[in-house]
Structures are given as structure tokens and as C-alpha cells.
Write a structure and sequence with these properties.
The protein has 92 residues and is α/β, with parallel strands linked by helices. It is built from three helices and five strands. It has a five-stranded mixed sheet with strand order 1-2-3-4-5. The longest helix is centred in the middle third of the chain and has 13 residues. It is globular.
Length: 92
Amino acid sequence: MDIGLWSVPVPIPANPLRYTLCYLIPGDDGLVVVDPGWDTDAGWAALEAGLAAAGATTADVVGIVATHVHPDHHGLSQRLADRSGAWVGMHP
């Protein structure tokens, strides 16, 4: 996959920070998504729209990396893993 590196703003509800930047990193087998964002329907829609803008879908996601367990970074990990079959990685 040759889409280059993308950042996707995923909204954080009722927070002055407004969004988390989720990153799409292409690899040999598909995309790795870093910090997919807060688990809301609006967050999911933003993530799907970002994937589409990059020319990808959830089916292209092979891995998910959460930099830490805050819900604005790790919240959509399970939903994305369920839809894509991707692995989830995080430090201990």
C-alpha cells in the first residue's frame, strides 16, 4: 500500500482539545493505525472518513497501536479491531 503517512483528526466530545490526531502508517501488508481516538459514533465516522480520504477502508487495517490507555487515544481500538481483524499493540 502506497498512500503515505496520514493524520486524521478524531473528535473528543466536550473537550477543549477538540480532537486526537490518529495516524495511518502504510506497511507492506496494509495500514497500521496509531491512536484511533475516542469511541463515539462521531469519532468512528471521522476515522472512516480519514481512511477514505487516504484511499483506504477498515479492511486495509492490519494493526492498531495505542500509545497509552486514555480513551481519546485507545477508545476506538476494539471497534476497529472487530471490523478489520487487526492486531492491537501497546506497551506493558
